[in-house]
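__Record contents__

***
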Amino acid sequence: MKTEKEIILEAILSDRRNGIKLYPREYLPVISPYGDRNKALNRIQRVFSDNREAINEASDSTRCIEDNTSIEEYFDYAKTGKLLNARLENFKYNKRVKFSDPTVIVFSSDVHLGSAGCDYDSCMEDFRFIKDNDVKIVSVGDTGEMKKEFPKNLFSILSQVLSPDMQSDLIAKLFKALKPQILGAIEGNHGANSRSGNEHAESIAAKAAGVDYFQGNCLLEIDVDGAKYRIFARHKPMSSSKLSPLIGARKMATMESADCFVCSHIHRPTFGVDWVLGKKRVCIITGTYNTSANYSRVGYGEYSARDEFPALLLFPKEKKMMVFASMRDAVKHRNLIMQ
């Protein structure tokens, strides 16, 4: 079995030989750090510094012209996405899971528990529905409001209806109740530092509940009775636009090789299907329960933020995905095909 250093170095050398030069932070998904992000980044930087000569040699070996490669072969290489898939194989999946029956996955985010603007009735209703209908869930960040230190806006701290410590306790209880169904929780931008140091507050809650917690990006492989699906998720989109809220997820789809790309943060739920390199890729932006917050209203329009969370239905044996605006519609469809 390869060591972490060998995995990182192999990914770096492979990229350099293909003329790709990335920053050390871009290799964080290679090792899928569960602990301190800064410590993981330091380990990657040490690989760069300890193997500088080999990395430079790999960079120098890059050839702009391949005399023995035909035009047709280059076009075939581009159409099939071999380069993207080769890079993905270097990356370590954050998690691999297996299911035997059609599977519904909902992407929840921006709950903002503890904020005055959270729709607690809608949140509780969805929580019960998920628990009662065996819906799998990926939490894409900002489950709590978690405002402890925010010098630009004192009101955002004082207006919390639950303290950060109470929020952490509530999140841990919710995660624990849904533990058999939670595929993972991803770090968001709302995360007050805990009393024990610099660890993200939601990370502490997830650990207390025994739920997998991921920093930055998350890459999941889901096997549904032999049909394998790759889901790439992160909290913040790679770019944003008020006119085209889906653009951040679509940008990820052109850079990574997966079947579904999920972002949150902007509170505007939407989804779409793109064809990239001849493959169908589902792009999703999640909604929020914090629909009356100033950020939801001023940042993206009075009525744009909604408590809607798109869901995927993954079919067994033969690879097939369906995306729904509502997890309730996805569950209805799943129940029909299982009859």
About this structure: The chain is about 35% helix and 20% strand.
